[in-house]
Amino acid sequence: MFVENLFYEISQLLMQPILWAIYLAFVYSLFELGRFLMSAVMRLRNVDSFRARSGSVAELAGYPVAQFHRLQPEASLNDIEIHALKRLELVRVVTRIAPMLGLIATLIPMGPALMALAENNVVAMSELLRTAFTAVILALAAASITFWIASVKKRWYAEEITAAEKQLVQAGD
Q1: Which of these, 44, 88, 34, lies nearest to 65 by C-alpha position?
Q2: What is the pLDDT of residues 94-126, one digit of tens each?
Q3: What are the residue boundaries of the structural domains of the chain, listed by start?
């Protein structure tokens, strides 16, 4: 019984940090969505410079992998791929972690909500369930937004890596 109570208390202590992590993930996803939309606009504006493989680094705005390759022409294909992966890392982590945090934030208040229901305390139960469902909705929204962004950026970066590979092969001839 002591161990069960100890674990219960530990789980209750986790609730606030998990809620804050979910809120931060949601805000980050909105921030990243804004950055993504700006990148899309920049890519549309500078698509000719990218396709022509000419122009300055500034003319490749929206093409971060191509910019990296232009700034570091001695970089190997592996270096370029690592750069692309680093740029995707945080958005991919949020995509995977947010649903887990949402599940935890749903399960923690379920025990107290069921206890409130057993005590016929509908007000306490509804407050706990509101917290649980709000947290999971925000977490899933954050994961959905960042998943979409990560998927599109992965394709963008693959196109840029392919172009860099072609340049490396031509330079080697």
Answers
A1: 88
A2: 999 999 999 999 999 998 999 999 999 999 999
A3: 14-172
Q: Token pair of 33, please? A: 């969505």
CB-based contact 154:36 (threshold 8 Å): no
Cα 28 from Cα 61, distance rounded (Å): 22
DSSP letters for the chain: -HHHHHHHHHHHHHHHHHHHHHHHHHHHHHHHHHHHHHHHHHHHHTHHHHHHT-S-SGGGTT-HHHHHHHH-TT--HHHHHHHHHHHHHHHHHHHHHHHHHHHHHHHTTHHHHHHHHHTT-HHHHHHHHHHHHHHHHHHHHHHHHHHHHHHHHHHHHHHHHHHHHHHHHHHH-
User: Per-residue pLDDT tens for 25-69?
Assistant: 999 999 999 999 999 999 999 999 888 876 678 888 999 999 999
Nearest to 113 by CA among 4, 15, 25: 15
- Single pTM value for the model: 0.89
Please state, in angstroms and rounded to a whole number, the distance separating the CA atoms of residues 54 and 43. Answer: 15
Distance between CA 138 and CA 125 in Å, rounded?
Answer: 20
DSSP 132-172: HHHHHHHHHHHHHHHHHHHHHHHHHHHHHHHHHHHHHHHHH
